[in-house]
Amino acid sequence: MLNAESHPRPALTGEELTLGYGAQSVVHEVSLALQPGRVTALLGPNGSGKSTVLRALARLHPRQRGDIRLAGPAGERSIDLLGAKELARALTLFAQTRTTPQGLSVRDVVAFGRHPHRRRFAGLDDADRAAIDHAMRLTGISDFADRAAGELSGGEMQRVWLASCLAQDTAIVLLDEPTNHLDLRYQIETLDLVRELAEGHGVAIGIVLHDLDHAARIADHVVLLHEGRVHAAGQVGEVLTSAHLSHVYDIPIDVTADPLDGRLRIDARSRREVRTAAPV
Q: What pTM value is reported for the model?
């Protein structure tokens, strides 16, 4: 599963995407590119359009304008021209909310991810079982593979759905707040897994995050959204600045670099703290 291959990995590009609900546009002319081996983080306040953009990239939200193109060994095509299974072999989306299935084991749920690779009515083959086992090891759920999914905690189920996405074995992975509901250990392990998918397997990652420190930790490229538009895009240090973040989040935010490892430290200050620190 997820082995690096000699041929080029696909990449996904959204060009001037305008998205909305009904006649109301909520995302305006947003462009971004997911590159093989790189993590692109979509950041911004609630309502800025992050998850809507991610769902549109997976063809789960209609576009009012713009195009989404998949590039790979066979050339570049609009995703509108791909069949459902063909698209599912190219990319997978880890969504924020999923219903916990009842009457199925954890292994059964992870096996959902193999659907695009199976012939109609065919059972699991050796490649399917290997991909499922590998995905469960990566996400740390092998020990409860035979438990009923309905018995799991929210954090455990979060990892099960992530394993199902990884079992799909795609070259593009879209993640919508994958660290939600996870305790600190599994937050860090999930972030490390995201980096491993990019660096070790050449996967193109698009990830929505609320935690700016998490984004600074794993992202190669950042798209900062504000009111449905791209406020800034570029490398982490270019986008995660005090000026950009304070403007977008409408709260004073200090950004400093750790003198030892250079990692960015992002510290949001409340208005009360600002008033207290102000000279009398």
A: 0.88
